[in-house]
Amino acid sequence: MAKPYNRPLQSAAGTGAGRPPQAPPRLSARSVRQPMKEPVLDRATISRTACDAAALLTEAIRELTVPQHLVTWSKRLEEAHQVSETYAAGVRRIAMAATVIGVYRVGETRKHFLTPWLFSEEELQHLGLPGIEHFVRDLGAFEIVRSQWAAHAQAKKSTTRSPGRLVDASALGRALERTGLGNEEQFLRRVRDELTPAVEKIRDRLLEAHPEARDFITTGYPQALQQGAIDEETTRGAV
To answer: Measured between alpha carbons, how far is 67 from 149 in angstroms, rounded to an integer?
Structure first.
């Protein structure tokens, strides 16, 4: 019967016996990863960010809500034979494009305005708004649809030697299925029942915590927008 293998003891010379013990290597400040600190913003910056976020979320709510009514209206008219099938399909496409813009706006607002400056990640999760990739299921596929429906008309830009290229139809079809946009009624239902209520809840929470944001979205921003147009007209008239 074979004996179990035992590793022979190393000699004193092999182990470095008799040598003075070496101190462990010193870690430099760069070698120790410091925990990331939450950014500290002054009160004015927080207020401005809250106003910006409230304006963007209000716009997103419109973009998520109005398409629901457009689809319902076009369906009723089509069933009553008051509009053609082609017309109704065109309305649905416009409604879905607006919805895609609204969903993307929510994602961008969440990423660049809400966290970590106004809400923690845990707070947004609790309020029903995880990362937008959880809603669209496949963010890369969603980008393909958004690009085709609401951004760029081409998958490849034109050059001096060749024209542009349309997004490949099979790739667009796969992207529609991966994101759930291929089933228009189901996707709009999820927007209505899951996404829009969460966005409204967060927007309302912002308005409660920052009353100045309500004035900003109802009077401040619209008046500044109108004044900018008036100033441009005045400038052109003076030239």
So the answer is: 14
